[in-house]
Structures are given as C-alpha cells and as structure tokens.
Amino acid sequence: MLSYTLRRVVSALPVIFIAVAVSFFIMRLAPGGPFDRGRTLPPEVMKNVLAHYNLDLPIYQQFWLYLVGLVHGDLGPSMAFYDFTVTQLLLLGLPFTLTLGFMAFLLAIAVGVSSGIFAALHHNRLPDVVLVLVVMLGVIVPNFLMGALLQLIFGVWLKWLPAGGWSSSNPLSLVMPVVVLAWPQAARISRLMRGSMIEVLGTNYIRTARSKGIGERLVVVRHALKPALLPVVSYLGPGLAYLLTGSLVVEQIFGLPGIGKYFITAALDRDYGLVLGTTIVYMAVILLLNLVVDVVYAWLDPKVRYR
User: Fold this and answer.
1) Least crowded by CB within 10 Å, which of 111, 127, 287, 293?
2) Is the pLDDT of residue 64 over 90?
3) CATH number of the domain that 227 lies in?
4) Predicted confidence band at 153 (pLDDT cuts at 50, 70, 90)?
C-alpha cells in the first residue's frame, strides 16, 4: 500500500504541472490585464508597476519565475490586495472555507447514507417515492437559487436564522450555508446508496443470511452495509472537491469570510497570482482526496490489490 501511495503521489506531479501551465497561460494570454480597470496610469508609472510584477518580461520567463517561486512555496504577490501576498490571503480565508466544506460534507454523508438505506428497505413504497422527489429537488435546483430562497424564507420572513454574515458568537449563521452546500451532495449520495443497497439486498449471500434467521437490522449492518458503501466511497472524493469549490458561490451569497470573495474579486480584477494560487490549492486538495478515497476503497474491498 505504501508503494502504491508513493506511485500515486509521483504520478500526480505531471498533472499539477499541466494544470499550473494551462491556468498560467490562459490568464496571461487573455485580453486585458490587472491594471486596465482603474484609472489610467502615466507611462512611467505603468512601466515601473509592470516591472515590479515581472509583467514586462517575455511570458516564458514569467512562467519560469513563477515555477521557481512555487517550488519554494511562494505563490507570489496579489495584484488586487496590494498589502498581502497570495499565501497570506489564502491563510486568512482557507480555514473558514475548509471548515464550511467539511461540515457540509459530514452532513451530506450522514443524511445521504441513512436516507438511502431507509429508501432501499422501503423500496417502491411511500418513503422511497418521497426520497426520490427530494433527491430530484436537490439535484435540479442550483445552490445559489436555493441559498436565496432559504434567505428569503428563514432569514427575512420567519427570522429564524441570520440571513447573511458571520459571527463567531452566533453559530446559527452557518446553518443555511451548510444546508445549501450539503443538500445536492446528500441527494446524490442517497441515490447512490439506495441503488447499491437494493442490489446488495438481492444477492445470494443476503438471502442465505436471512434464511438462517438473522434479524433484518443485523443483515443490513453486518452483511449489506459494507459492500453497499463502495459506490458511495468512490464518489466521496469528487463530492468533497465539489463542496469545497461550490462554497465559493455560497460564501458570496451569505457574505462569509472564506476565500470565495478573494477568488471572485481576483477573477474580475485579473489578479493573476491569487487566481493561480487558489487553483493550485484546490487542485492539491482534490488530488489528496482522490488518494484517500482509493485507500479507503481498498480497505472496504479486500479483493482490490495494487501492484
């Protein structure tokens, strides 16, 4: 398992390089620049500004200097937030974004797995039909629309929850953002869990276990749950990555202090360093999650062998 993990880490390096290169050249070659939206600077001042950020160099030299800094852990300066480096901005907002994403992830797993099992045990009956309707609602409605609806209903009309903003003394301000993030993923997980559990419950060894007089709860927990979780585990890596990236929009809707506001501002202002830094961080998180999912999958399925 250790050798397999090391091979996966080494094989991820070309992926990281290609993603960084593509993001870098797309940002640099697109029309406009980070200093075109403000007031027009005198030519002498603009020349000094471009030289400060190495933007006066040929693009291949800019890319080489960025790679050298990246190897040394330097994501470069921010061109929109002049008093901060990209690393400082990410360290300010990333912990909150990760916390929000992982809370939604845990809620999605708990709700998705339990509702999927419940629907499978009541296949083609009323609870199963209700679950299918809720799943379709969670998959079809985008999170920005769901967030606006929850703000209007629970924040403005009923006034049960804060409509936006963040206060460390009021954890209720996280309820709606977490629900908005978790709902689509819980719907997808429940659909996967329902289909997998129905398939497993129809296998021969489950029939054998029932014929021996084992109770239904023990059959589900001891014999059906572990193999039924395999498709769900395969989805958890991309699902968590989707939660972390999808939190950028939710943070903007609810006015939360994550890296979403930095990333969107950077994209609008063409802040090369911050856009690239955010892309690299999310890419590293996605690769790490995929590696963790592979390891967990091997633990759940002893038949898996890595050579």
Assistant:
1) 127
2) yes
3) 1.10.3720.10
4) very high
